[in-house]
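Continuing the series of single-chain predictions for the mutant panel. This is the parent chain; the variants come on the following pages.
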Amino acid sequence: MEEFKPITTQEELNAVIGDRVTKARASERKTVEEEFTQKYADYDSIKNTLIEKENRITELGKELEQAKNAGSTNDEKIKELQEKVQKYESDSVKTRIAQEFGLDAGLANRLTGETEEDIRKDAEALKSIVGSTSVQRINYNPESTAKDEENAALKNMLQAMKGE
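Parent structure:
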């Protein structure tokens, strides 16, 4: 066995434990790197997934804006169509009331009022001013020929001239 030699200087101490410290550091470094590698092995895939999700969120945001714009366009169209339906219903009521009071069909658009009752009052007032006018009804048959229609129109005209 070797004889024990006491360490008297710092250089001697560094020489004796230097290798041991270097080996311990390398061992510890290797352990930490292995733990880090295991712990964060899927970092790149998580990062890519996050990027994909962010892109998808951006796309969905754009689609949402388009849907909102389409929704507002549809709302405007619905409002426009509701106004048309309301006008047609009002015109239909006016025409029906004008026929009930014996007013000419051309006078139906002169009737005013928001409710049917108001339109009826206006029709009464208009009838008292204008009086009753004859309403000539034309029966339309889509299966009839042009000759039949011409004959019917002539017949109606002759009857109107005779006062029948």
